[in-house]
Amino acid sequence: MAEKCLCQASQVVLLPCSGGSNCGQIANEAAVDLTRKGLGNIYCLAGLGARIEGMIESARSAQRLVVIDGCPVACALKTVQSVGLEPTDYLDVTEQGIEKNHDFRPDPMAVSTVVDRLRHLLGEPPQRG
Ligand code: SF4
């Protein structure tokens, strides 16, 4: 089976943890929203975790690698680092004043807060590198 992904890495790669909590789902929704707005492309964190070489190389070629974790456990960041990549930009949803719980319906206001913060980040030079 070919190791390709139709998600396709782009100049701005968005890697949400998409975890099993409100904050993980807020991270995912924010990445989907930015993708719909044409400000980046959500990418497959699981593909990196699975060490799919083509996907790792595509992510490595992006200009901005934006990692969005739901909480300080930082699963997305650790997954990215486990394959030898470092994010250019990083956001932890709980650092935006959003408390973690297990309500999986992302609060639209919280999603909007995270989207606004990410838009701000993307309008500035990369945090790292
Ligand atoms: S970073 Fe937090 S919310 Fe995201 S997958 Fe890990 S534990 Fe879950």
Q: How many domains in all? A: 1
What small molecules does this complex bind? iron/sulfur cluster
The radius of gyration computed from the alpha-carbon positions, rounded to a whole number of angstroms, is 14 Å
Low-confidence stretches: none
SSE order, one letter for each helix or strand: EHEHHEHEH
Strand order of the largest sheet: 2-1-3-4
For the termini, the CA-CA separation is 35 Å
Please tell me the overall pLDDT. 92
Number of strands: 4
Our estimate of the beta-strand percent is: 5-15%
Largest sheet: 4 strands, parallel
What is the 3D shape?
globular
Total DSSP helices: 5
Describe the structure.
The protein is of the alpha/beta class and 129 residues long. The chain has one domain (12-122). 40% of the residues lie in helices and 13% in strands. It has five helices and four strands, in the order E-H-E-H-H-E-H-E-H. The protein has helices at 22-36, 45-49, 53-60, 75-82, 108-122, and strands at 12-16, 41-42, 64-69, 89-92. Helix 4 links the parallel strand 3 and strand 4. It is globular, with a radius of gyration of 14 Å. Iron/sulfur cluster binds next to helix 1.
Give the arrangement of secondary structure elements:
Layout: E1 12-16, H1 22-36, E2 41-42, H2 45-49, H3 53-60, E3 64-69, H4 75-82, E4 89-92, H5 108-122
Parallel strand pairs: 1-2, 1-3, 3-4
Helix pairs in contact: 1-5
